[in-house]
């Protein structure tokens, strides 16, 4: 047996855009400022034969700058010229519509701010846009508020890193979670994600599988099983 690794390389955002500022990963994604530069960076990336090109299109509740559609369109167009598919990290319905109209190949994460509508469905069908819902990405920001269920699950404790298990025992960890200004909104975003997955699947949109694991608190392998559970709860068949 062997593992296969597929990569998007550096990915694309804008200066001071998600996920490059506020102590995240500055200098890792390409930070584009105009269409010519965007096309040039895609050309540079294409030399390394990535499996997909990624764009972050999210302002994280207004805390970051968001990649505007004219830059995303330039990236998508140039990537397609190199026969590379493009996946976009999305959150907002209106961004998803613009990206689908521009020919993006997949959404990494669900639309979460609103329920999807017929316009988005038609655009996704027209351009063959896939959905990778990553429901566990939407559940982990609040699921550990009651850590006992996880700490008593041997399947979870075998998979979770020791430092994370220790963190779940620390009352300060919960205080930090609850202190998030968007804490009360997260369950609603998960419900939106599940509703949108079911509606898009019923409409015949192709759906991929992913968990966004690897970020602190998102446990690899365990999340695959959790993701399938959440997908079934959304109305997909087991």
Describe this entry's structure for a reader:
With 238 residues, this protein is α/β, with parallel strands linked by helices. The chain has one domain: Alpha-Beta Barrel (TIM Barrel). Helix content is 45%, strand content 8%. The chain has helices at residues 35-46, 69-81, 93-101, 118-127, 135-143, 148-151, 154-159, 162-168, 171-178, 186-202, 222-233, and strands at residues 12-14, 30-32, 53-56, 86-89, 106-108, 130-132. The strands form 2 sheets. A 4-stranded parallel β-sheet has the order 3-4-5-6. Helix 1 packs parallel to helix 2 and helix 5 (135-143) runs antiparallel to helix 10 (186-202). The longest helix has 17 residues, at 186-202. The mean pLDDT is 95.
Highlighted features:
single chain; 238 residues; alpha/beta; two-stranded parallel ribbon
In brief:
The protein is α/β, with parallel strands linked by helices and 238 residues long.
SS element count, helices: 11
Strand content: 5-15%
- In sequence order, what are the helices and strands, one letter per element? EEHEHEHEHEHHHHHHH
What is the global morphology? globular
> According to CATH, what is the topology?
TIM Barrel
The multimeric state of the shown protein is single chain
